[in-house]
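User: quick one, fold this
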Amino acid sequence: MAEYVFGVDVGGTTVKMGLFDMDGNVLDKWEIPTRTENRGEKILSDIAASIQEKMEQKSIAQETVAGVGIGVPGPVEKNGIVHKAVNLGWEEMNMKEELTALLGGMRVEGGNDANVAALGEMWKGGGQGHKNLVAVTLGTGVGGGIIINGEIMTGATGAGGEIGHIHVEDNETEACGCGNFGCLEEYASATGITRLANRALQAGDKDSVLRKGEVSAKSVFDAVKAGDELAIEVAKQFGDYLGKGLGVIAGIINPEIFVIGGGVSKAGEVLFDYIRPSFEKTAFHGSKNVIFALATLGNDAGIYGAARLLL
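Assistant:
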């Protein structure tokens, strides 16, 4: 009888790991460095060694472990094939087969990190009680995960849910990290908000607290809460782009709830005041009543979602 499951969230700097019981209670969590040198050849063996070490520490027999779920920053097919994880140095590989072999035959399930985090928020976070959910992570970039009827939408090659690369602006001259121009990520991420603020500051001489210190997504929304006019204009631009993008998604997916996470979400529910007007203007009437909520699992969403892949 299985008693435990491991959840693994692979990032470009660290690998977050969690040990869970079968009800989804976290029993232990820890991190190891992500060794990306030599095209990340040591990453999976490091993960396997760390899991086996934890099992020895806690006297956990392999037959009592349901398996290991793993989320990685790249497209992942249901069969475990990863199609290039740039931040890890990986080219195409069958992550599921390789990690299973390293773990002595233990069951492994894998997915894209943003999709897996969305599953975690549905299971134990801000999306609890909902089976049709879109999770949006507003961090350095814009990540996304789509859950339909409780299942991750992966798409043909595992690249489904790339919300940050919806095209929202025709007149952009700076390229997105993906190489395209005018992606949602260029305006709704932390770096995108900073870009919008710097452009607003350079475009005129309107007085603003943002002229007196470091410009960041946090400083913009702190200024918004203090009533700064220029910061409010920037927040309206941010909200217009993000609301439009989510309105497009709602017309296709018809979710019950959008769960907003990532560093920008620390601004709180004030974000929704700027997202909703554009969303309601854009969304099909059958999707206008969608709920907006903040993510609650923070950096643990990935390990929860990875564990849920097994359960």
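User: anything notable?
Assistant: The domain at 4-119+300-310 is CATH 3.30.420.40 (Nucleotidyltransferase; domain 5).
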